[in-house]
Design brief:
The chain is α/β, with parallel strands linked by helices. The protein is 40% helix and 18% strand. It contains 10 helices and 12 strands.
Length: 358
C-alpha cells in the first residue's frame, strides 16, 4: 500500500510517499527555520504564506524521488490538527483537491499520531514496537505520556500543566539571548557547561500524603504529569541575578544551559519510569522534536535497558521534527480499518484532540 502524506501543521512543508507504513519511498521537508529565526519564533502568517509557495514544489519533488505518479498512490493522508490554522489549511486543502481529482481515499491524522508512528519507519515487521507500550511525546507543542494497548488506541496518562518541554527550551534560550530554535543551541551550550552549577527544581506534581476518614495515612499515586513553569522561573531568577552583577558571561550561559537541560530531562525520565512500572508495558517509545536531544536519548536508553524486560525505541533524528513520513506511517494503520474522511467536508482543526480509532 502506497500512501502520499502531507504535513503542514507548523513551519515545515513536507510531503512523503510511504509504503506499507514502514518503507520510505520519499521524504521531502522544506524548513522555514531561517525565515522565522529573524523574529525569534514562528510567525503564523509568514508560515502560511511560505507553505503556499512551497507545497506544490515539495509535492512534485516527493513524487519524483519516489518514482511514482498520483495514479500509483492508494491513499492521500494529511495532518488535520492540531497546529497553526493557516498552515493546516494549506495542507488540508491540497490533500482534499488531490483526493477529489484523482478519486483517492483521504485519511485525516492527528499530528501526535504521526510522532508516535515515526518509531515504525524503516523497521521490519519483526522489529517494530510491541504492545502494550508507553510513548513519551515531547515537542514544542506537546509533553505527553501516552499508553497504547494496541494500534490506534490512545490513553493520555500524563501531560503538562503549563509549558511543553520544547517551549521551555525556546524560552530559556530567549532568556539567555541565544538564537532560535532553542533546543539545538541549548544542547550545544550544555556540552560546554557544568550541569551541577545550578540546582534547579525537579518539580513533582504528586499530591502530599493525607489522612483518610479512619485516620490512616494514605499515599497518593505518583503523578505522571509535568510542569515546567517553576523550572523556567528558577532559571529567570538566576539570569536576572547574574545580569544585576554585570554582563552575563558566556560560561554562565553554558552552565545554565547544562543545568536546565539535565533538570528537564530528569523530570521526563522520572515520569516515564513511573509509567512503565504502573502499566507494566513491553515497549517504551520516544517521539517529538525534543526526542532529538542526545542527552534525553542516552538517559532513557540507560534507564529502560536497566529494567531488562522492556524495549526502547526512538526515531532517527530526521523523523523527530515535523515530517510527512511519520504521517504516512500512522495513516497506514487508519487505512487498514478503512478510517477515511470525506474530501468535500474535511476541515482543519487547530485544537484537535487525540482520539482512539472507533
Amino acid at each position: 500500500m502506497k500512501i502520499l502524506a502531507i504535513e503542514t501543521s507548523c513551519d515545515d512543508t513536507s510531503v512523503a510517499v510511504i509504503k506499507d507504513g514502514r518503507k520510505i519511498l520519499s521524504s521531502i521537508i522544506s524548513s522555514q527555520i531561517n525565515l522565522h529565526a529573524f523574529y525569534g519564533g514562528v510567525v503564523p502568517e509568514v508560515a502560511a504564506r511560505a507553505h503556499i509557495q512551497n507545497i506544490l514544489l515539495v509535492l512534485d519533488q516527493a513524487l519524483k524521488v519516489a518514482k511514482v505518479k498520483i495514479s500509483d498512490i492508494d491513499s492521500i493522508a494529511v495532518t488535520k490538527g492540531p497546529g497553526l490554522i493557516g498552515s493546516l489549511i494549506v495542507g488540508v486543502n491540497t490533500a482534499r483537491v488531490l483526493s477529489t481529482i484523482y478519486s483517492k481515499p483521504l485519511i485525516a491524522l492527528h499530528h501526535t499520531e504521526g510522532h508516535i508512528y515515526a518509531n515504525w519507519l524503516e523497521k521490519s515487521e519483526t522489529s517494530t514496537p510491541k504492545f502494550p507500550l508507553v510513548c513519551l511525546t515531547v515537542s514544542g507543542g506537546h509533553s505527553n505520556l501516552i499508553y497504547m494497548r494496541k494500534d490506534l488506541d490512545y490513553q493520555i496518562i500524563g501531560e503538562t500543566h503549563d509549558d511543553s518541554a520544547g517551549e521551555a527550551f525556546d524560552k530559556i534560550a530567549k532568556m539567555l539571548g541565544l538564537s532560535y530554535p532553542g533546543g539545538p543551541i541549548i544542547s550545544q551550550r550544555a556540552l560546554l557547561g557544568d550541569e551541577t552549577a545550578f540546582g534547579f527544581p525537579r518539580v513533582d506534581l504528586t499530591p502530599k500524603p493525607f489522612r483518610n476518614e479512619a485516620g490512616y495515612l494514605e499515599k497518593p499515586l505518583e503523578s505522571l504529569d509535568f510542569s515546567f513553569s517553576g523550572l523556567k522561573t528558577a532559571v529567570l531568577k538566576e539570569v536576572r541575578a547574574l545580569e544585576a552583577d554585570g554582563h552575563i558571561k558566556d560560561q554562565d550561559k553554558n552552565n545554565i544551559s547544562a543545568s536546565f537541560q539535565l533538570c528537564l530531562n530528569e523530570i521526563l525520565v522520572r515520569n516515564t519510569l513511573r509509567a512503565i512500572k504502573r502499566y507494566k508495558v513491553k515497549t517504551v517509545l520516544l517521539s517529538g522534536g525534543v526526542a532529538a536531544n542526545s542527552q534525553l536519548r542516552a538517559m532513557l536508553t540507560e534507564a529502560v535497558n536497566s529494567l531488562g524486560s522492556v524495549t526502547f525505541y526512538h526515531p532517527k533524528l530526521v523523523f523527530c521534527t515535523d515530517n510527512a513520513a511519520m504521517i504516512g506511517a500512522a495513516a497506514y494503520h487508519r487505512a487498514l480499518i478503512n478510517d477515511f474522511s470525506d474530501p468535500l467536508t474535511l476541515t482543519p482543526d487547530s485544537g484537535l484532540k487525540l482520539l482512539s480509532a472507533s
